[in-house]
Structures are given as C-alpha cells and as structure tokens.
Write a structure and sequence with these properties.
By secondary structure, this protein is α+β, with helices and mostly antiparallel strands.
Length: 472
C-alpha cells in the first residue's frame, strides 16, 4: 500500500513538472510589437482641409485638464485622473496635422531658454577653427496668436441602461453606459489680446458589457455552471483626441467664414470638408435635451411629427389562462402611425394570430386596437417608447379534433381588450425604421381557452419585430 501511494505521488510530481516546464512556451495572449497610434474619426477630415494662403504661427502654452475629475469606479473614485494630462501634446499634433498652423514650443519654454543660454555661453567662450567669434543665436520666433482653453468637463453616467432575461437557469444580460467629455478652444491675438474665435466640442464615451450564463442541475447533486461574456469601452484618450481635433477643425472653418484667415484658392470654400461642417453646424444648432443618448445622430423629430407611417410586425404570442401549459404561437399585424408631436403619436393596428396550450385547445384571434405612444428619445436614431391603448378582439376556440367550444351567453363575437407595452425603434434612414415591442393584452373575458374557471380573466402577451415606412 505504501509503494502504491509513493508511485502515485511520484507520478503527480512528474506531471506537475511537465506542466510547469511547458507553461513558459505557452502564451494565452499573442504578443504584438509597437505600432503607429490609432487615428480618430475626425482625423481624415482634418488632414483633408484645403491649403491656407499662409500658415498661422500659433503658440500653445498649456491646454489643461480643468475638470479636476478622478477616475470613477463602481466602488468609488481612485486617485488616478479621469482625463489625460497630455492634452497639450494632442493639440499641438492636431495643429500640425491640419496644415494650417505653425505651432511653437511653449509648454517647455524654460527648458528651451536654458538650452539657448548654454549654447550662447559656449559660443562666447570658444571660437571657430579659423579664430573668429561664433555668431549669436537667431531670435526666437514669436506667435501671431495663442491658443487657450482646455478640457472643461467630464460627465460620468449621463446615460445608463440594460436588458436581461433568465429562464430555468439559462440567460444573459447587457448593460450600456455613456460618459461625456467637453472641450473649449479659443484663439487670442497676441498684439491686442482680443479673442478672435471660441469653439466648443463634445464627445461621448460609450461602454458596453454582455454576459451569458447557465446555472442548472443536470442530475441529482450535479450542478452545471457556465459563464461567458465580454465588455467594450471606448478609450477616453481617443475620445479626448477626437474632441480636440474636432475643435481645431471648427476653429479653422469658423475663421475662414469670419475672414480671420484665408484660403489659398477661394474656390476651396466649396470643398466637401468645409461644406459638411457648415451643414452639420446648421443641423445641430439646437438646445440640449436631457436623456438624449447621441446628439450627433439623425434628428428624427421632424420625421415622426405630423407624418404617417405604415408598418407591419411578425410576432410570437403566448396565452396566460386556466390551462397550465401554454404554447407559443405565431401572429402578425399591420398598422398606421401618425405623429401628433415630437413625443406623442397614435397608432391603429389590426392583426391575426393564434393562442394554444399543449394538449387542450387552439384559438384563432383577430384584433383591432388604437394605441397612444410616448417617446423618450424623439431626436435620436434609437428611440425608447411606451404605449397603452384598447380595442376589441374576436376569437374562436377549437379542441384538438377541430370542434369549436360552446361559448357562454355573455359572448357577443367581439370582446373589449386593453393593452400596454414597451418598444424600441431604430431609424435606418429618414423613411425606414426597425421596430421591436413587447406588450401584454388584458381581456374582459375568461373564455379565450374555452372554459370559465377562477376569478381572473384570460390574458396574452406578444413579442414583435417589424419595419415602419414613413411616407414623407
């Protein structure tokens, strides 16, 4: 027995040694070498600007983080700053990449002056090979304008949301969060101190987390637990860089419009980059709205208001009544939608579907309903809304042999119904949107399943997906 135990121990030690020896040659994540840094979504427009008549000599002393914000976490705040402290370097590079500015070194001016002193002292003490005195240093270049401003705010959790579902231990969830960084940039004349132009840009920072899990007993005393998921986060540094580059682009274009600086070719005022900016400025000059998820997306308020939409949905509906084993059945409906205002619209829909349980009955059901819809994000591509309404349903129940159940005397062919629900609408373009809804129908009848039992009337719910076509 001792020999057997010793052999098992030796085998275990050998196995551990082999695993440890191989571990150094295995890498869970592939290593990559250094590469060029990523560019923001604005960089292509910035470097596509038409050429200036003359480059602007500009000085940037310091483009500071003025938020005083520390990095946020679920357990509180850490001592790390939420915003990069290298915004000056980002701004100088953006100025240089634009081709419109000749940036001067001012952030480390003391270092530059000390080095010039060393060079001047050395030139005074030593002569050239032919014995002549070395010439003095040329004067420093001075700037026509200085660029001031900074990162003035960093707002966390301006929008949070999520969705999750779990059934018999199997489910998943997703969560989203939005932060926001704001940048101000101004050009100041060095001769008069006059503020020539001031611009303001903002950039959202989005984070998303998705997880899926299974938690179930597969056998007695045998528990299976699985978890997987991922999270994506926009790098805050890249968002700050994009906001700064957008500010430089705005400053150049605004200066051209106001005659502060000139194009090399006057016809370049019609270039795509400049015209795109002017159109964007005109379209997005509007007040801030609370609960707005993305202000730089399609403005849908003028699409929905006083417009007629024609839509259709396909759905899965489930009955909740006196039988214990409901069965999901298909349904479909068409509807007309009219926008009364930005946030409120009316919809009339008619549809047909089926309700059934596993063994006892199958019911065909037709409906006509009027709904009132309240939108939370009327100016965004992705709109969350709730609705409620009422109407009438007609239904007929059959058993598995196709025989219709007899109805009570109180059944008159059509029965009133009330409904409420929640939905999501995503605008693909100005005339087409994708629609998803979940609603629950409350009937005033206990005869959907062919029997009358208990004190609670029968109900059913729908999960729908479809499209809406707007006519104007």
């Amino acid at each position: 027995m001792k020999d057997c135990t010793l052999n098992i121990s030796l085998a275990f030690l050998i196995a551990v040694s082999l695993v440890c020896g191989c571990a150094s040659s295995l890498q869970s994540i592939k290593r990559t070498g250094a590469r060029l840094g990523d560019t923001s979504g604005v960089h292509a427009d910035l470097i596509s600007l038409p050429a200036p008549k003359e480059k602007i000599v500009a000085a940037v002393y310091r483009f500071r983080d003025q938020t005083g914000q520390y990095k946020y976490s679920d357990t509180g705040y850490s001592w790390s700053t939420a915003i990069t402290q290298g915004a000056t370097s980002m701004l100088i590079k953006a100025l240089d990449d634009s081709g419109w500015f000749m940036p001067l070194e001012r952030e480390s001016l003391s270092n530059l002056l000390n080095e010039r002193k060393i060079i001047s002292t050395t030139r005074q003490q030593y002569r050239s090979e032919d014995g002549e005195q070395l010439s003095p240093l040329p004067p420093l270049l001075y700037a026509g304008i200085t660029l001031e401003g900074g990162i003035i705010s960093y707002e966390t959790n301006t929008f949070t949301g999520g969705f999750g579902a779990r059934y018999f231990g199997l489910g998943g969830s997703t969560q989203i969060r939005k932060d926001e960084v704001n940048v101000y940039l101004r050009a100041v004349s060095t001769q008069t101190g006059k503020i020539l132009k001031s611009v303001y840009t903002t950039k959202s920072i989005l984070s998303q987390e998705v997880d899926v899990g299974l938690y179930r007993y597969v056998k007695v005393k045998r528990l299976l637990e699985l978890e997987t998921g991922y999270s994506t986060n926009e790098p805050p540094n890249m968002c700050v860089l994009e906001a700064i580059e957008k500010a430089v682009l705005c400053l150049i274009t605004e200066g051209i419009s106001d005659g502060l600086w000139a194009l090399n070719d006057l016809d370049d005022i019609n270039s795509p980059v400049i015209q795109t900016y002017l159109d964007e400025k005109e379209a997005h000059y509007r007040p801030f709205e609370f609960l707005e998820t993305e202000r730089d997306t399609l403005n849908t308020s003028n699409i929905v208001t006083k417009n007629i939409g024609i839509g259709f949905d396909v759905s899965v509906q489930n009955y909740a009544g006196d039988y214990p084993d409901p069965k999901a059945r298909p349904a479909m409906d068409i509807f007309l939608r009219y926008g009364v205002s930005d946030r409120f619209s009316l919809a009339f829909n008619t549809g047909y579907g089926e309700l059934a349980d596993k063994d006892n009955f199958n019911t065909g059901i037709a409906c006509m309903e009027l709904r009132g819809i309240v939108s939370f994000f009327p100016r965004n591509r992705l709109n969350l809304y709730v609705f409620a309404g009422g109407g009438s349903i007609n239904f007929w129940a059959e058993d598995k042999q196709g025989n219709r159940f007899k109805r009570g005397k109180d059944f008159g062919g059509w029965e009133p119904t009330f409904l409420s629900g929640i939905g999501l609408e995503y605008f693909i373009n100005k005339h087409l949107s994708a629609n998803m809804t979940f609603d629950n129908h409350f009937t005033l009848s206990d005869q959907l399943d062919g029997i009358i039992s208990g004190d609670i009337d029968d109900t059913f719910w729908n999960g729908k997906a479809g499209l809406i076509f707007y006519l104007f």
